[in-house]
Amino acid sequence: MELHEAHAERLLGTKVRDVNGEVLGRLEEMIVEVIDGEPVVTEFHVGPVALLERIGGFLEHMPYFRLLPFPKWEYRIPWTDVELGEVGRVTVKVAKERLRRVEE
């Protein structure tokens, strides 16, 4: 099994492309679980709702925030479908149509 290490702060905000080169959005959130005592990224969240996760869900509870025309979707991509290339390059191994898009 090949291991990959990357600095999370360098990946956040990076454009994510699918296998065909189409931009899916920006990487905004990474879900981490502790496996065998080690923190491991298990899922990547890409899109506008993921940005809200990163900057704080409290914004949704502020008056008038819900009135702003803000897209309410994100992709939740398992780590097994993500390829980390050179710094600043994140690619998904499948086509956009096969990804799980979550509508909020």
How would you describe this protein?
It is built from two helices and seven strands, in the order αβββαββββ. The protein has a single domain, classed as PRC-barrel domain (SH3 type barrels). Helix content is 12%, strand content 38%. It has a seven-stranded mixed beta sheet. The mean pLDDT is 83. With 104 residues, the chain is mostly beta strands. The longest helix has 8 residues, at 48-55. It is globular, with a radius of gyration of 14 Å.
List keywords for this structure.
SH3 type barrels; 7 strands; mainly beta; 2 helices; 104 residues; seven-stranded mixed β-sheet
Task: List the total number of helices.
Answer: 2
Shape: globular
CATH 4th-level superfamily: PRC-barrel domain
The N- and C-terminal alpha carbons lie at a distance of 35 Å
What is the number of domains?
Answer: 1
> What is the CATH T-level topology?
SH3 type barrels
Secondary structure tally: strands:
7
The CATH architecture can be named as Roll
Q: Are there runs of 5+ residues with pLDDT below 50, and where?
A: none
